[in-house]
Amino acid sequence: MTPLPDQAEQGRLAIHGLSLLLERAGSWLVVVGTWIFGGLIALNLVVIAALITVGPTDRTVLISVTSFACALPLEVAGIVLLRLSKDVEEIGLESLTLQSFEEAGFRDIHAHLPAPSQRESAKKRSVRVTLGYALAMAALSLALTTTGIVAALWHMAPWVAEAFLAMALLSGILIVLALRHSLPPESDAERTMKAETRKRQSAEKLGRPGELGDGR
Fold this sequence. Notes:
Blueprint: H1 7-24, H2 26-54, H3 59-91, H4 93-103, H5 116-156, H6 158-182, H7 188-205
Helix pairs in contact: 2-3, 2-5, 3-5, 5-6
């Protein structure tokens, strides 16, 4: 029987797999992130323009305007970061820099750049860091934007804001259900592996860690 990896090993492999997925889907994630930030910027500008004409009539309007105003710089920074990352990759800035300085007679330019064997790993690390910061900016700006929308709707009527939150929650649940149902069915090998894992965990809880190893 093939030994099953423990939970720590499975966690390490899962993290490594997600890291490889981010590297390979980096270009697509940059495009999607640009769309998201662009949509949030457009929404914030439209709502802020409308609320400015209303004026500081009550606390909910002030909360809404403040939330949108705080989210806007994050969204601009996020879209700039993603666009710069995409443009640098498309034009090959590192190769252009090396070629330009070599043609200019700068003999020690190679000493100021990573070695050829390290450039690919440095490029992958740059993609991971860029996507990580962009994800953090998107999460924070989305939270601020949601707060601003709820506060603006609360200014109209509390039940309108509550209806919006309920429908937002329902939409999230429907997305999760749709993604779950679109996944391929569980294979026999995966079911066997899960059963063996549960059996091993039960044996460890009962103080018989060697029960799984005898193949019974």
